[in-house]
Amino acid sequence: MEADFQFGDVEELFRSAPTLKDEFVIRENLEKFIHRNCELGRRLVCITSGGTSAPLERNCVRFLHNFSSGNRGAVSTEYFLQAGYAVIFLYKRNSSQPYCRRIVECFKPDHSSSVQDRIELMECAVQSYHESVVQGKLLEVSYETIFQYLQLLRLIARNMNCLEKNAMFYLAAAVADFYVPWEAMDEHKIQSREGPLTIQLALVPKMIKVLRKQWAPSAFCVSFKLETDSTILMKKAKEALHKYNVHAVVANELTTRNEKVIVVTNEGEKTIEKDLDVEMPLVQFLKERHREFIECK
Amino acid sequence: MEADFQFGDVEELFRSAPTLKDEFVIRENLEKFIHRNCELGRRLVCITSGGTSAPLERNCVRFLHNFSSGNRGAVSTEYFLQAGYAVIFLYKRNSSQPYCRRIVECFKPDHSSSVQDRIELMECAVQSYHESVVQGKLLEVSYETIFQYLQLLRLIARNMNCLEKNAMFYLAAAVADFYVPWEAMDEHKIQSREGPLTIQLALVPKMIKVLRKQWAPSAFCVSFKLETDSTILMKKAKEALHKYNVHAVVANELTTRNEKVIVVTNEGEKTIEKDLDVEMPLVQFLKERHREFIECK
User: What ipTM was predicted for this assembly?
Assistant: First the structure.
């Protein structure tokens, strides 16, 4: 049986987590950003992106990590901005950032494109990024560990609650399922001379439920389900829709995730296939669902 | 007692590891690169960079990861190229690459530098990178897992052996100490519904010893030691110098590693402090030690 939802576990995780650095500054920036975009009547989406790391040591050298380049979240951010949304981009430090995918291509030893072409690509990327930030449409907030991710998501969600239906959560980050509780953690780097190692991991409580029930219950909420085994993917995506009470679940299979995804909603399943990329039609589809959700009294 | 060195463990790891993808192409590129630089009489350094991940599942979604942005290796590559070396850059996919540090700065929401300044920085970075590749001075080889890292290091080291004393290894990658042997691994993503998880980890055999004894015994070899506990750092760095029989160990402490490092050699200890950065004087110092090593009959 699946471990059931316990508000106690959630409280315990937050209680024992290390204090968030710069919380005051982050909170101030968030409030300003949300307030301004709310006044302008913009829809606002919080996009989470990248893996989350669960430290094994307090002075962390080793951690348990979930696979995620952060590409899905970064590219989707570009399309949500294009679609008129303001975006809070909550991303794992050193994972992909919006407008950066072209940059990576400029540093490939591929002799087919000239230096001049590469420089033009980059100019365009820097300009688009800069404009979004300066016009107050894009706010980036970074995290490293699962503790920071959850604390920041709570902070953002509670602040976005005032937007009610105009708020969307697009939870593309690959959140750790397992972690070592802070209080059970070694202070320093675990020494390999002690020989083989056994790690005891606790389950990370499913925060989407708390987000839906407590932090921002009026918002439109999209979660992601990634599996490597295609035979269980759709079953698990449908279960997630009900269990977490979200508006859409994007089902991905690891090897085909850049070719197609299937969006599960209460109305059924919609297969979204790659155009230039998968993110463009996916964001378009979700924008429409969000519009219907807002218009539905 | 520290688990002692067993050639058997090394053989076992290589025997059970999944086959390296594209090995034939990589091998061909390597041979061409090394042969050409050897003919030109260039010194050649293999720089390893970034963390290594140890998968928990064969279709990997989760892995155990060592902290490393890859900055040390990426920036050192720039200085080794400046110093006239050819560089094989063996790096973790998505970790820092040479000439990219300025790029990251262009995507910071910092209003102090203009878009034009940012674009000029990037132009300069793309051009430097492009030149190094086109002139055949820089070869980049990427890896993801600890298995790929070790297989590639072995391939590179065996090929570099022909350079004898003109070869250097600058082993800045944060190599995993623990891993799940391939044969003990689950096929698919471990399901969180089963509840808390216990992971049994085996020790990764210390490959530096094999590199020094078998793969490239004539090369100049620099290893790195990172600790979070400053009270044991120097003791461990000195032990490493003798245990792995390397020519220099660069001792770093996690919190001060961008301010200073201490290089331990048979001649004693040398503290290297930040100038523009730590890497510039560090590479300068090691280049001199390498020159002495080559000239010493």
Answer: 0.70
Distances (CA, A) of A134 to A264, B204, B207: 36, 48, 49
- Give yes or no for a contact between B196 and A203, defined as CB atoms under 8 angstroms apart: yes
* Contact between chains at B178 and A188 (C-beta distance less than 8 A): no
For residue A58, the 8-state DSSP code is S
CB nearest to A53's CB, from B3, B65, B228? B65
> Which site among A52, A53, A94 would you substitute to test the B interface, given the most B Cβ atoms closer than 10 Å to its Cβ?
A94
> At how many degrees (to 10) do helices B115-134 and A115-134 cross?
150
Long-range contact list for A208-212, CB < 8 A, 24+ apart?
A208/A171, A208/A244, A208/A246, A209/A5, A209/A243, A209/A244, A209/A245, A210/A7, A210/A10, A210/A154, A211/A153, A211/A157, A211/A169, A212/A244, A212/A245, A212/A246
- Domains (ranges, CATH) in chain B? 7-295 (3.40.50.10300)
What is the residue-level pLDDT of chain B in tens, covering all 297 positions? 334 445 567 888 898 888 998 999 999 999 999 999 999 989 999 999 999 988 887 776 788 888 788 999 999 999 999 999 999 999 998 888 998 877 777 777 665 677 777 778 778 888 888 899 989 999 999 999 999 999 999 999 999 999 999 999 999 999 988 888 887 777 777 777 777 888 888 889 889 999 999 999 999 999 999 888 888 999 999 999 999 999 999 999 888 999 999 999 999 999 999 988 999 999 999 999 999 999 987
| Cβ atoms A95, A69 nearer than 8 A | yes
> B201 and A197: CB-CB below 8 Å?
yes
SS (H, E, C) B90-120: EEECCCCCCCCHHHHHHCCCCCCCCHHHHHH
- Out of B99, B178, B188, name the one closest to residue A228 (CB): B188
Is B95 near chain A, with CB under 8 Å?
Answer: yes
- Is A2 an interface residue toward B (CB < 8 Å)? yes
Q: Whose CA is closest to A280, among A265, A251, A260, A295?
A: A260
8 Å CB contact between A47 and A68: no
Which residue in B2, B65, B202 is closest to A196 by CB distance? Answer: B202
Distance CA A140, CA A95 (A): 12
Task: Identify whether the C-beta of residue B215 lies closer than 8 Å to the C-beta of residue B154.
Answer: yes
Contacts of B283-289 with C-beta under 8 Å, sequence gap 24+, read B283/B76, B283/B79, B283/B80, B283/B83, B284/B79, B284/B83, B286/B168, B286/B170, B286/B222, B286/B248, B287/B80, B287/B83, B287/B85, B289/B220, B289/B247, B289/B248, B289/B265
